[in-house]
């Protein structure tokens, strides 16, 4: 313990001067460097267990832990006061009046910044890890970049300056207070002034903001004298209004909210009195006051981030520390890193002169001034001789690329990380098969999996996908989906649902007025997929955004975070839960829309689903328990499986209702509940949309894992459970027996296989079924005759005709599953089977058996597989189209053979969801006719002038019935966007900056204006601000004109509407054959998720463009051709759309005069001279 540390806490002390038991105790005090210098600032380190102080002499000192052991002390300025200290991971920042000093915690300086703008600095605030704001009694607010150590911007804050800067983590404002009693609210991005709040009449002394409240303390002018105001002023930041002030018992000069408490703050008086105040009214208020042991006047204080300690500094240089009663040895941070201390030199050991066993060589010899020790070895014996390293793998040499003097290649992952075996020079290099075995290479590594199975990363250029060559991965007529959007794991199921034509037709023609409707969003997505004939994949961003907002989705854990790597997610269980949820959700939404009213179906009981899903999430951990409890765990797993079907069966309704989903997927069941005590029976009719396969995990005889037998047992359930019996008047065991009464047109099957027990059961079945084939001597002789493959274990070709003895030796082991050579022995589920219903009995047989008229034949239509390459997991789907199988891996689409669809390996390719179609149920796969649009002109005619928002009749006027656009009419359109997630980039191995995730944009404003032929030409009839509930990272105000609050329903004065409503208006215009005129419409429609035929788009970007030259901005085109200046301060979508329309009319005029080429040449000549900048 430090010698200056003096514990003073005694039970009889007058530290607690409030009511009731004390919440804090005083740990002790210590002195700073100089007794005559007051401590002007106190700061708890946010990364280590340190307290930092700065005094009036320019010294900065630090103290370690609750004992306040002196750690470092250094001087940052010779004459000026240290006003504030901030910490980051690299060190501290100390601010004086004219300088900013950055030093590491051990005291070594890194840089000192001085500037002519830094004249009387008083405060600073870290806006981001690389951005620091500095202000004070000076007219300038300095935006300082910590990366380049330069002043990025100078903002004029007025003659009164800015004495205090604070901001809550989730607040949308940066709060700047001046000495005259005003607090200015600024935009954290642009630092522009947004609001100004008056506080105390004479002067502002301190304030803090947390949650929804801003609280300040200061001085009032009473009869010409400055008096400490004993009322704390409280502002509600949601309304920017004063609420009831808080009266204090002491003179408040310093205050701060307690971390992690949004309604409690600490205030400090000049004489060291501390009072804890609640911002909300309590039914039984309690006075919490303490007298801190200080020598004179308290000048500074701070609260640790853990809320366990407070530090106070006075004008005599004394530092006091108090802690919570519950933490007598407080930690300043919840997760502090270890503090680095100076190394203590180890003393030499004491050795007796008579000790003959002590090794004298353990004591280092003194350094010689000249010459050598006689015991030194010769030079040649001190040289290092390294063993010869292993030669570079030929695979690396064959795939190596050279960039300048640097060569790089993909890692083939044939050895363990950071382990390269050495070979002696006299050792012969041989291809011993055991060498690869020693490196623990598995044939199931990522390079052995076909490329079109693995997740493909998109390489972006300039933050966009438009320059990426998707045609390399898709040579078919089908459209893919992008895979980098959040929750894009469901792309495989979206593709399957899209190619189920009856379901597609029902969704595309569906429309409703619900704000969030997944059926509507699926219909919009399917319309875009059906009409997109290019190789550019579509985005499912609108559907995924609506999907995340459905409460049941979060309850079922169907939303995955970007921070959670796909390796740690059970994708098999996730996609099966998604399949079951989406079918029920579509069914309920179609019923709500009033499509039909006939067949029994039930809504999902989310509570039971959540319960069942949470139980299944425990299966992986249950499999790791001891052997003696495995039987009980198997019973629980089986009950969970039954519970999924039980949830669907418990929700029957008396009056049967039907939707397109229930008519396609509905499996009708007759359920009998019989009490085993009194034999009371209850009958019930059920409809199940998805069949969950139930495996015989608890069977002691290890029943066969044949697919058809498991499917039969899963459809005809029989189990015993405990239920309430009205006759017995208590819970008693019941026999639950379900029998299929009618079969669906489409049979959806969840395969399970989401836990190790089921996978091992299927592995044993397949290995036993294939044992005769694997151990056949004929294959061994064939291997001996065939020439061995030159690539050996590294061969990735599925159709390789050479032998692979090492690969065969591994695959025949009991640790691996069946192979993927496409033979019948590698298959588990068939391409077709027949189901026969005879009363309450059901039989499922192979299609090769004799058939009769009562049987229904089901053919395989689609399969979803989970692919695991050892590093990440992804989902792919196989879909049958016109008799040909295709693999859909996001935007990678190619045709495959049937053997590739049916064969799988349980080590990396696991079936998850199957879809079978009834042979008697036909649909026209060649039907490319357009569907009747569900949207009408009422969407546009319902627009009304809202008196509660800012309106300019010259810019906006709703359509009259005679003004509704028709086919061929011109409409000018423009959209503005905001950024939800910023762009993420990395430096690749060749030194180039690569964007691996572009910014995620969201449409914020859509404007459409009347075109030529209308008496109100140029007046907007659509000007929608899109309501958003997601976090916006950048409003892009300079380029979009959108300001913080414009998209907030509580603050906005704009015409707010939902994205779905605006989308429906645009869809009506597209379906009506309207021609859109705009600038850069291709990207606008892409973000909106709307496909518009190219014949309905007139883009001024391409009208005024010479091939193989740069694109010209709208601002430059407007200045050059129209002589007008636009976008001077910010963008406005109505102005941009009107300008695009004028440019199009000017282009038509040039075309009539046959001056288009001359005008374009002149445009590019002037643009190059001006460097494409519009003159001021």
TrEMBL record:
The keyword Metal-binding applies. It catalyses: Exonucleolytic cleavage of poly(A) to 5'-AMP. Its EC number is 3.1.13.4. Its main location: cytoplasm. It is found in: Cytoplasm, P-body; Nucleus. Residues 479-919 form the USP domain. It comes from the Eukaryota. Pfam families: PAN2_N, RNase_T, UCH_1. Signal peptide: none annotated. One of its GO terms (molecular function) is metal ion binding. One of its GO terms (cellular component) is PAN complex. SUPFAM superfamilies: Cysteine proteinases, Ribonuclease H-like, WD40 repeat-like. Keywords: Cytoplasm, Exonuclease, Hydrolase, Metal-binding, mRNA processing, Nuclease, Nucleus. GO terms for biological process: mRNA processing; nuclear-transcribed mRNA poly(A) tail shortening; positive regulation of cytoplasmic mRNA processing body assembly. Its cofactor is a divalent metal cation. Catalytic subunit of the poly(A)-nuclease (PAN) deadenylation complex, one of two cytoplasmic mRNA deadenylases involved in general and miRNA-mediated mRNA turnover. PAN specifically shortens poly(A) tails of RNA and the activity is stimulated by poly(A)-binding protein (PABP). PAN deadenylation is followed by rapid degradation of the shortened mRNA tails by the CCR4-NOT complex. HAMAP family: PAN2 (MF_03182). Forms a heterotrimer with an asymmetric homodimer of the regulatory subunit PAN3 to form the poly(A)-nuclease (PAN) deadenylation complex. Contains a pseudo-UCH domain. This ubiquitin C-terminal hydrolase (UCH)-like or ubiquitin specific protease (USP)-like domain is predicted to be catalytically inactive because it lacks the active site catalytic triad characteristic of thiol proteases, with residues at the equivalent structural positions that are incompatible with catalysis, and it cannot bind ubiquitin. It functions as a structural scaffold for intra- and intermolecular interactions in the complex. The linker, or PAN3 interaction domain (PID), between the WD40 repeats and the pseudo-UCH domain mediates interaction with PAN3. This is PAN2-PAN3 deadenylation complex catalytic subunit PAN2. The lineage of its organism: Eukaryota, Metazoa, Ecdysozoa, Arthropoda, Hexapoda.
